[in-house]
Give the backbone structure.
Amino acid sequence: MPSNTTQAADAPTGRIGTKQPPQSDDRFPVPPVEFRDDEARRISIRTADADDFDALAAMYDDFGAESRAQRIPPIDERRRRDWLETLLADGWDVAAYHEGTPVGHASLVPIDESTAELAIFVAPGYQLAGTGSRLLRTLLGYGSAHGVEGVWLTVDRTNRVALNLYRSVGFEAVGGGAEREMELDF
């Protein structure tokens, strides 16, 4: 498949659902998506599920303190594996891969029938190269295509990179103290 292309998504794995086939648009494509990041690396984004557990767990094993936000992924291996297992079982997940190795993971965890909470992580060597932006947009397309109508998140108000990323796709601040709450409605 040529770079910067999209295809229809696979069947949903999360709890939120719709019987309509997934639709893609330029702003929020559905996976799979392939592109070249700002370092000219070929990155592919696809849906993620329990089959991706070991590869994603290995990616998170390499995360240092600077790659954690709001104490996630957890430092303790058992807690980290439980956290990842829950995301993959309950949420809508996409993962970014470079040469067969995951370099990013994003999840929408259902809050209710049409709303989900967002979590996104990009491996340190792939940050600030466009992978996070593509990963986020693809996750939002995947969720929207399967019935998610609103997304909520919290982010440390000093995390300017993340705040700018979320604003760039349409999230708006709705409150918070040390942690900024943001929402996006489709």
Remarks:
- The chain has one domain: 5-185.
- The longest strand covers residues 101-110.
